[in-house]
Structure formats: structure tokens, C-alpha cells
Amino acid sequence: MSLIDLHEDRLFPSDSRVRSLARHLYDTVRDLPIISPHGHTDPSWFAENEPFPNPAALLITPDHYVFRMLYSQGIPLEALGVPKQPRAGGPEIERNPRKVWRLFAENYHLFHGTPSRMWHDWVYSEVFGLTETLSADTADLYFDTIDAKLKQDDFRPRALFDRYNIEIIATTEDPLDPLVHHSKLKDDGWGKKVITAFRPDNVLDPEYEGFADNIARLGEITGCDTTTYQGYLDALMDRRAYFKQHGATSSDHGHPTATTADLARFEAETLFAKVTAGDFSTDEAEIFRGHMLVEMARMSLEDGLVMQIHPGSFRNHNQGVFERFGRDKGADIPTRTDYVAALQPLLSRYGNEPNLSVILFTLDESVYSRELAPLAGHYPVLKLGPAWWFHDSPEGMRRFREQTTETAGFYNTVGFNDDTRAFLSIPARHDVARRMDCGFLARLVAEHRMLEEDAAQVAQDLAYNLAKAAYRL
Amino acid sequence: MSLIDLHEDRLFPSDSRVRSLARHLYDTVRDLPIISPHGHTDPSWFAENEPFPNPAALLITPDHYVFRMLYSQGIPLEALGVPKQPRAGGPEIERNPRKVWRLFAENYHLFHGTPSRMWHDWVYSEVFGLTETLSADTADLYFDTIDAKLKQDDFRPRALFDRYNIEIIATTEDPLDPLVHHSKLKDDGWGKKVITAFRPDNVLDPEYEGFADNIARLGEITGCDTTTYQGYLDALMDRRAYFKQHGATSSDHGHPTATTADLARFEAETLFAKVTAGDFSTDEAEIFRGHMLVEMARMSLEDGLVMQIHPGSFRNHNQGVFERFGRDKGADIPTRTDYVAALQPLLSRYGNEPNLSVILFTLDESVYSRELAPLAGHYPVLKLGPAWWFHDSPEGMRRFREQTTETAGFYNTVGFNDDTRAFLSIPARHDVARRMDCGFLARLVAEHRMLEEDAAQVAQDLAYNLAKAAYRL
Amino acid sequence: MSLIDLHEDRLFPSDSRVRSLARHLYDTVRDLPIISPHGHTDPSWFAENEPFPNPAALLITPDHYVFRMLYSQGIPLEALGVPKQPRAGGPEIERNPRKVWRLFAENYHLFHGTPSRMWHDWVYSEVFGLTETLSADTADLYFDTIDAKLKQDDFRPRALFDRYNIEIIATTEDPLDPLVHHSKLKDDGWGKKVITAFRPDNVLDPEYEGFADNIARLGEITGCDTTTYQGYLDALMDRRAYFKQHGATSSDHGHPTATTADLARFEAETLFAKVTAGDFSTDEAEIFRGHMLVEMARMSLEDGLVMQIHPGSFRNHNQGVFERFGRDKGADIPTRTDYVAALQPLLSRYGNEPNLSVILFTLDESVYSRELAPLAGHYPVLKLGPAWWFHDSPEGMRRFREQTTETAGFYNTVGFNDDTRAFLSIPARHDVARRMDCGFLARLVAEHRMLEEDAAQVAQDLAYNLAKAAYRL
């Protein structure tokens, strides 16, 4: 039997001088409220405030970090209870959450050295009061303990939200979403705590499933004639305004690349006609997406939404898994991503605008020092989003600071994004970021590259102030 | 005069807490037998068990790490005794091994900070009992000491094999090789200790020297009609079976890129006709190689050979050196390598097969966190080979773990490959890997990211168990 | 109020064992003379020896590291006194240097964690004797103190040159430069201390502003008929000889990529006719530049100038800034850069020449371990320039050594380049390099990867000997 190790000095460098400095810095930020400006929690949780379901349905089945690792070691997704597409073949889905949980517990060693392990251990220990580590032996103890607590009122979403000291959280919705949960949240006085963000990929990307239908639906919702380019732009502007009414301060764009394009009006109209007719090449799809990023920047200048660009994921790389299980099943793989040439059309048009703010993310760490830090260290509109997705990890965060700070400084970055649908782990994720940032600052202080008093100010900014300012919260 | 420093704590981080943890972990793995599933030792050494020749011929002339560094500083390859191609011009080759040795000794400072230096120092100290460092002053002492020992029976290949505590070693042969040494080894009862691996580049790559002749020879050896595509496939399957009889558990593929292609049968037949006729473009050669990787995967599904893909080397970059000295003269240079799009055809076809195993290597470290760890952390067929070639070094190994573990974990990796023809240094190379892995694990423990007991288990797995399992030994 | 922290152990790793070793190594190199073989100081400073102007004009307005960071945070370049192009619109330029200085001081926190901060702090403390950190509160104290000192004779350029213990410095001039300052320096007996370097981009790059005019002017200066290719080559050779008379030992080539090309004579002549006529595609411009690098290598073989290749910057990325403020305004952004295929034409032709020396630089750190170290660890003509531009920083220098040493060793590198026009900070920059190298060596010693006595020799070489040898000084 072994015990979960949530040591108070976890993640700090081992060197005693650095560790001591890190601990002092961390003590000043550990209890700051959580600002979560970018994430994927389900607004219905906070709107309805129903109890979360069983441990497997809460912690395993929806977490692609968890099931991708298990799948990589030969465990079928069906055995983990991951739902299949209609009419997909293969084995039966496991319906017994306890069995799913046991399978996870037996394979918990696969997560050694991963952030998933740290996030889960924190949840088990801090939220559910478990002390022994998860294993085959403790699987049932875990299942029963968690299952019982989830039925208690103080484990409902709003209670956890408050216990977690979350000041504000943004969810992510697409333009076709009616935002009913956000409306209810507003009515309940939670409108300042849970806001939406505008994610229009499904109406900007001609290669998105159902694109043409989505455009038509966009027209119905807004009353704009989306068979014309002008009507389409009007509809987007209309939905942006609607999202702003539901708290949105940002848009988010998850494109395959960072390509931007600044088409002349008639070119854009012609291309819009082609992509909505379904008559386009992959190059034309790419140009249309790129052009629409420039249009989004223009609209941001008007309405003030902060623009987030999240490029570089090759979605649904595993065709077999996609056919049987659909999107978001751990098979999105990062690709090499260019920003320098790709962003030039957007930056030539709007790069020096004082009132525009564009936050760049990457899945390609080789661009931190080569492209992103030099770009953000020059263009007034650009800021760097934190280490993202696979790089939202201790080593990933360390590389982000080591490779961006010397050129872009701290003040062209925007604090932390948890970017997660795993609501229970949100404090653990922010805690990892705070610890890693304090560890990085502590090293700078120990190496006499920064004064301790300055590091303390920066630590506050990274943990709280920068996110509020960058996302205009 | 200075002494060789093989300190018991070498390669461990300096921080006393981490170092102490590393030492404890290392103590549990230092004496484990060596599993060497991928390498380039000469099977005739073990089959014939003749004494190794003189120090220069053993340690300098065949080691491209050594002579490339000396060459880079202006020392002609001829002066190092490197054999030339027939009819190549230029200076005479140095025939006196003592003179070659002295030249190396005088320039030993060039290797400061390199793994070659560590491997050589270990060999000098641990194998030959030398205590002073190599230099111009000690060159003759070294030469005489090593030369004398090499004549002793306990320095013959089999004696060193046993002294080195090697449990199993794989050599690498091409399909045209008759495997006579492996046959003799089998007869001598060494068949479980020295096995072959199937490396068919010379009959899969249309751009390989003598490709068409090789295909013809493949037909002669197997009795298959390799003028037809089906006969060619049959011949490959036949040789795979023959290699399996000589112990092979893996195939190995050293292609310029990771491109895979899944051609329709008639396309493959047409392309086969073109490439064997010598009538093909570089693009067609690339597609043929890529298609044959998918065929190899199909055969692996049938016969169980583990498939290794080693892409990304621009072979024989230095045309002058290639013309005068031929292949493998230190002029192979890594190139930027894509895996995400390149592997999709293979993975679409076989990526979810429970019985296939594909081990990926890279010379492009930028793909560790961006491509390889995400791919291996998802696809059941994929595992990550260790840091390879230029990256088979302390810093390279550290980067490999830092950049892959958080996404792929430890259990999608396969232990260490020494990948060497430098037989004498094999224990030193495995020792470097064990020390670096223990140092990495120790840091995770010291930073409370892993329990010490879990780290001890992982250390065992990395040093021994994973290689045995991944290579089906 | 806080004090500048120029701790004697700054930049050394915090671990006490490593730090102690680093300090010992550093003590042996800290006072070595400065060799500055590549930089952008203004030769008129040393020739005329006039006092430097006010603090803002000396330390802010010409330093693109400084104003790019301030600009990235929304401060207009006009407010920093950066001069505009004739007829450019926008706000008035701030003419009061004290106001510019105050703006900088108020925003000094933006530079936390950047090398600019370390360089500036050193200048303030060591050169001007200031003790409190720069801030809004101390802005006027700083301005007045610095302004007063700059008027003293012992703060004139030659006095600082001697106080800085600079043995030799190279400036950079283009072939059209008459080198009048260098002539005067020679007459004054300073010809061995301040030398020029030959930077012919403006007559080799068809896309350079005024290229055709520059070629014509080159003809006038040399008396060669630069309307013909042969006359053009003759003119270049003539100017190289003239630069050598003014001390030049190197040429420098700042191309967008590392492309080289080895055209047949008639191809080169035809292309020369096209590019000088202004009738060429971007591909043709690229090939012409690439071909001229091979021609430069040929000329270097004749005249012995060491060739520096500085590729990979996307110049003037910000079109708005370029139009209003011109070149070199912090908007040059690094791009992904290939060396392996790009350099092959040059290396196929001249890669094994004993008397040629080519120093490679990069802005793309991903090539250190993948391309540059393997190339330099093999080709006799190649050496690696130090971490450059955005990577000329503590973390950048650390990555350079960690990622190149194991494959290329120390002796295929060339010491430090400050590469700066910020004369006052030159000792601070060399000091950072010496400290970082000593810290790196100290870690190798502490990890028993290198003997302390060997590290001491390497430290000397990195700080002084290698630069002298590599640049043939």
C-alpha cells in the first residue's frame, strides 16, 4: 500500500535555494481566485446544478487524456464505456461503471510521469479525501467513496465551483448554440461567473462536418440571408453580439493551420459561393478559413472580442476510431505549424491596431523561440497563450517560459488556461501552472537574473492579473 | 598527468537530493543483464571467436563517431587508416596502426563533452585497466596495453560477451545475407544469444545501389520469380521466415523519410515494374518505399516480426567523401522529418491491430513532443524507440524523456538500443542509458511527481523488461 | 527602492557544487581581453572619438531590443524618438530625450527576465555607477547622471574601448562603403583594433532595395564593367581586397535562407543579366543569392576571408512599420530554416577544402542538434557560430551548448559574437557568454563528464582562443 504524495513542495526544483524561493513566491499566489478564461466545461452543469454521475462517467469516459493512454496500450475504447457512433460495429460497450473504473485502476501505472496522474491524484486526495494511491487493490474503495460523495449536495457543480474559489469561467459554444444554459445562469445571478466564448469553426471552416447546413441554420437563427456573403457576415456579427450579451469577451478559432488571407471583396464573395455550394478544393477551404480569420479580426476591432487562434492539430487522425467513435477521441495529433508567413496577411492589415488583441497558441514547441516570442515581442496586437493541450504539463510549461521569456518577456503572455472539460481537476491544473511559474521565477532569482520583489509581482500577474486583463474580464 | 574519472555518480544530477535518489535507483538496475535488440555488431565475431585485431582497427577505423570528429578538424581520413574505394585518388592510407592511434590520442581533447569520450574512457578503464587519460603522452602505453590484452583468450568476443553480461544481442542483416554466422552460432548453442534482424532496405528502396540486381539475386536465393510483384512479395515473405529461423524477432527500415503509401494492387504492380526496370522518378521511388512499408506491416501481422522504422537521414551528404570512401563515413546528416501525414496510410490500414507492433525512431528531436509522443500515446501499434544515433547521448536521452513522457508515458517506450558496431563499448552505452533514466526518475521523485517505489519499478522496466517485451524476446 | 543586483555569482546554476565549480572556472576567464569579430558598432565613433549624445539617443532609440518590447505593449515608436521615413504620417516624434527616457523607465518592468535587462543593469552599474534600479522614480536621476558622464573625456569611445579591455573589434560594412573611418583609424594607429568585415548583401541580393543601382555604383567605385558577369565578379574581388586592406578577415552573408546553388557559367551569366535588369522571379532571386554564396566561397579560397552565413530572418515583417520607419525596427522575424539540402551545392563543391572556413549561424534552434552539429562535426570547412540574435541570451546560450556539444564538440564552435551596435553593453554581453559557458562546463564537471582541468582549458578557448583562431585574427 502506498500513499498519495501531494507534498507541499511538489513541482518545485529540488535545489534547496531555488525550492525555498519558489515556496515563498507560491505562498503569495496559491490562494488567489481562479480565472479560467478558456475551457470546455459544460454550462448545463452550472445551470442545472444536478449531481455529477458515477466516477467512471465523470472521470474516465469523457477524458481523452485518460482513454487515449489506455487505448495506446491495447485496451478497447468499448471496455472504457466510450460511446460509439450509431451502427458502428465491434464489441459491446461496457455499461457497468465499476468495471470501467477497475480497468482504469489496474492500469494506473501507465500514467506515471504524466500530468493526468497529478491531476487525478489531486482530485482523489483533495476533493474526495482518499489517501492510498489508486490501484487494482483500491479500485472498489475509490469507486464507492467517490460515488457516495457525488450524491452529496456539497459535491454538486455550484458547490464545487465556490469551494474551488473560481472567480470566473468561460465555456465554449458555437454560433448555432442557443445559449439557454447561459441565459438561465444569468437569471440565477451566475452570469458574471460563467460566461460563454464564441467558437465559430463550424460556420467558418468549409471542411467542417455539415458546413453548408450550419450556414443555412445560421441564417434561420439570425434572420440574415446567409446565401449571400454580406448576409453571412451580418449573421456572424449578430451572433457575436448575442454571445457578448451572454458574457463572451473572446472568440476562439481552432484551425488546422495559422493561415490568414486578406481577399478582395469580390474574391471573398466568389469563394463564399463555392464553399457554400460544396464545390471547393482543399486549398480553397484553407484560403476561406484564412480570410475569415481576417474578417474576425475586423469584427473584433468593432466589438472588442479578444481573438484566440489555436492552430496546428490534425483532427481525427485515426480513421477507424473516427468512424466508430467520432470526434475528440484522443486521435488529434499536432503538426508542424508556420506562423511567420501564415499570419502576415492578418498582421499587415491589423497588426498595429491599438484596440485589437489576438492571443496565439501552438502545439509546435519549436516555434516558441523562433516565431512566437519574436512576433509577440513586436506586434502590439499579439499575445502568447500558455502552453497548450499536450504541453499543458510541468515540462511543457517550463519549456514555454524558458523559450519565450527572453524575447517576449512576461507581459506579452496571458496567464493560464486550463482548457479542460474535466471540471473536477481545474484547481489542480491552475495549481500546477502556479507552481511551475513560481519555480521558474525562483530560478531566475537564485541565478540573480531577477530581484525577488520583482518576481513576487510577476507571480501575481501570471496567476491572476494577466488573464483578467488579456481577456478583458 | 590526469586520471580517468569514472566516478560512481557520473551522469547523475549534481543536486544532492536528486543524486542520492538516482544512486539508489541505479543500484537496483546496474547489474541487470544487457538486452541489445538492435545493433550492428558483426556476427562473425561471435561465430568465429577470433581475437580482435589491433587497437586502431578495433576502436578508431570502424567508428564513424570518432573519425567524423577528427575529419571535421582537418585530419584526412587516410591518416586514420579508413579504407578507400578501389581506384580512389588522394594520399596513401596509413597502414601503421600505432601511427593512427597516436593521431587519435593527440586529438582526444576534441571529444570533450561528447558521448564518444565517455564510451572510450569506460572501455580503457573497465576493459583494459588503464588509469591515466589518453593523450599524446600516453598514446604508446595505451596502444601496447590494449594490443597485448587483445591477444589474450579472455578478450576474445565470446569471453567479452559473457563478461559483459549480455543476455541477447541482435545483429542486422539484409535479405541477401545467407546468415552463415548465425547458422554456426545456432550449431554452437549461441542461437538464443546472438540473433539476426531483417533489414530489407537494399531490396525495398529503388534508389539503393544495385537495387535491380538485388531483386534478381533475391529471386535466385528464394526460387521465387522476382520479375513479378507477387513473386517479389513471396520472396520477401520467404526470407522473413528464414530470418525468423535464425532468431529474428524484428525487421528494420532505414528510409529517408517516414512516408508510407497504401497502393491498390494494380498500382503496386505497375510501380514495381517501373522501379525494377530502373525507369522511375524520385517521387516514384518514395512512393514505392512507402508502399513497401505498408506491405511489411501486413507481413508483420502474419509472421509477428516487430517493425522498426528509422527515418530521416540524408545519406552520404558529402559527395567527395562518398566517392573516395563509400557509405557510412560519418557524412549521413539528419533532416527535418514529418510523421503525422507520412504515417497516416500505414496507420489507417493497420494502426488499430492488436497484434502488430511498430517502433518509431527519429533524428529530428522537434517531433518528440509534437508528433511522436501524441501518436504513440494513442495508437495501439506504435511504440517509441529510444534516442537514436546523434541523440544517443546524455543530453539527448534527457530530452527524449522530458519531451515524451508526459504524453506517451514510460510504457509506450521500449528500453534502450545501443545501435552500435562498437562492441567493446556496449556496456558503457547501456550504462549511460540506465544512469540517465535513473537521473530523470530521481528528479521526478525529488519533485514529488512520482513515488520512489514506482520509480524503482519503472527503472527495472526501462533497463530490462520493456526491451524484452517490445522486441518479443 | 531596490538595488541593482550584479551578484558575483549571477547566471551560475544554483546548485552549490556546480556554482562553486563555475565560479572557479569563471575567475580564470573573466579578465581576458575581448575579441569581438562580428558586430555592428559605428566605426565613426572610434575614428572621431566624439562624446556620445544623450542617454536616450545612446541607449534607447538605436536599440531594437528595447523599442520592440515597448512597441509590443502599445507604446508608439514616435514616443521613443525613433526617426521616421520622409513624408511618413502619424504622430510627431518625441524630441525631448528626457521624456523618452522617462517612458522607458516607467516600463522597465517589461524587461524582467530578458537579456536586455541584464545588459542595461550592467551598463548602469558598472559604467555609470548607479546603484538603485531604474524606475519611474529614478528616471531623472539616471538621465542626469548618464548625461553628465557622457560629457566627460573618459566616457568617449576610445576611452571606453580601452577601459573595456577590447583587443579587437570588427564592424560591418557593405562593398559600397568607402571605409573612410577605417582609413582614419589606420592612420591613428587603431587599424589593428578596429577592423571592417565585408557584408555584400546589397550587391548579391536582387531583392535588396536599390540592387541594380548598387551594382552600377560598384562598377564606378572599382572601375570594373559591372554590366557583365565577369566584371561584376572582378569588382567583388576588388572590393574584398580593399576590405582586407582595412583589416577585414571575414565576409558576412545575411540571406533569407541558407540556399546555395552552383550554376554553370552560362547559367550564371544569363541569370545575372536578368536580375540586374530587374526582370526576375522570387525563385530566380533565391537561386542567384545561392549561386553567389558559392562564388563567395570560391573567392574566400583565394583571399582567405572567413565566410559567415547568417540565414533565416524574414526581414521587415511589419509592413506598416517598414513604410513609416524603414528597416531594422524590430520587425525581423526568424523562420524555419533548412541547412542540409540548402548547403549541399556549396559543400559538394568546397566542403573538403583545407583552407576554407565557413561559420554557420541560425535563428532556428531546432536545427542545432538535427542539422548544424552533425554538419559541423563532419565537414572540415564548417564551424558553428554562437547563439545569435534572439538566442543571444542565457537560456539561448545554454541550449546552444546542450544541443551542439555532444555531436560537434567545443572545437567546431568559434567563441562568442556580440553582434551588437550597443557599444556600451559589449562587456556585459561577453560576460554573459563567459558565465554561461562556465556554468555549462561546471555542470559537466559536477556530473563527472569532464575533468576540471580540461574544463579550464576549454573555458579559455571559448572565451578567447577560438574566436581569434576561427576569424584568423
From TrEMBL, chains A, B, C:
Keyword Mitochondrion (UniProt): no
Keywords: Isomerase
Pfam families given in the database record: UxaC
Entry GO MF terms: glucuronate isomerase activity
The enzyme's E.C. designation: 5.3.1.12
Enzyme's top EC category: isomerase
Biological process annotations from GO: D-galacturonate catabolic process; D-glucuronate catabolic process
Reactions accelerated catalytically: D-glucuronate = D-fructuronate; aldehydo-D-galacturonate = keto-D-tagaturonate
Pathway participation: Carbohydrate metabolism; pentose and glucuronate interconversion
Domain of life per record: Bacteria
Family: Belongs to the metallo-dependent hydrolases superfamily. Uronate isomerase family.
Protein's name according to its UniProt entry: Uronate isomerase
Protein's organism: Altererythrobacter lutimaris
